[in-house]
Protein: Molybdopterin molybdenumtransferase
Organism: Aquimarina hainanensis
Amino acid sequence: MISVEEAIQKVVKTVQTTTTSQTIRVREAVGEILSKDVIAPINMPPFRQSAMDGYALNLYDNTTYEVRDEVKAGDQHHPVLEKGEAVRIFTGAAVPDTANTVIMQERVVMNENTIAVEGLVNFGDNIRLEGEQIKKGEIALKKDTIITVAGIGYLLSLGIQEIQVYKKPSIGVVVTGNELIEPGKPLSTGKVYDSNGGMLATALQSLEYKEISEYSVKDQYETTKEVLLTALKENDVIVLSGGISVGTYDYVGKALKELGVEEIFYKVKQKPGKPLFFGRKKNKIVFALPGNPAAALSCFYLYVYPALEKLRGNKNFSLDKKEVTSISSFEKKGNRAQFLKAILEENTVTILEGQSSAMLQTFAVANALVYIPEERSRIMKNDTVEVICLPI
């Protein structure tokens, strides 16, 4: 059995970012990660551009200018200005080549076809130079950049419609157990509704993982092995729930071993989620989570989610953590590290009742986990604690 810190480091060390890329439309790329540099195909701005509404001037030693013309955004004509001449101009419009400054409209006095300029005017004022933001051939966005809404606007402004991003992994969610039935069917004695399969698949979908396949298997060794073999063939990552403990009918560990899955670690000194398995088969990643729902979801956030992020190119990803004041007290039993469901509010956190690994009622209202390391035995009211912010 290894510590939480050791388990996290083993996941980080084992998981490598995919080398598989795909081309997608820029407008569909929010949250995706660039797999190669994006090169600017044009200068931005593509011409000298007015930064505001006003007048473009050809400067001379006087404060009065004759207004010759008007240039709106999108106009393609380029008036030629002699010294002492001006054109009315609007934000985003092309500045005539013979103009060398733009003065805002609030600083002029209009008199028929002339304007009187008030205050000091400097060469180049309020003109966005061609290529001022970026020049053709320069790197617009670097490889490994996460695409934001602003990034999409930036790329579209350069006329870029498609980009190459790391391909997100395909994920197989496998739930095991003779006792599980689908929600909606009659519930007979000894049976429970399967919550883990839908819960884990929904968590993945909410985190923008789209290639998700779901599998279910009864507690039978050969059937378990067959389903796992299929899941390994069809997916990059396998996330199992249940069947990984040491009970008579827990067949997952034995089946994974026979299928050639290398064990990186099994069992973590933590509560909930002690019977956690992490392994790999060539470039396939396997997590076997406990069957208890709250334990499965805790392990998903703490280990599976960061692994998936690194796999898809988010190399520096980590869950948001912060130190806050606890307004609750808690006495830990045993010497395992513990993750407690809690409600985080600004700089305080409340530890919730009902911390059983089998119950989701508390988890359903939690937005954070309070982390108690192995060496700490209790939390007193007003103590400083570390909390992990849940993404969803």
The helical segments are 4-14, 149-157, 196-206, 221-234, 252-258, 293-311.
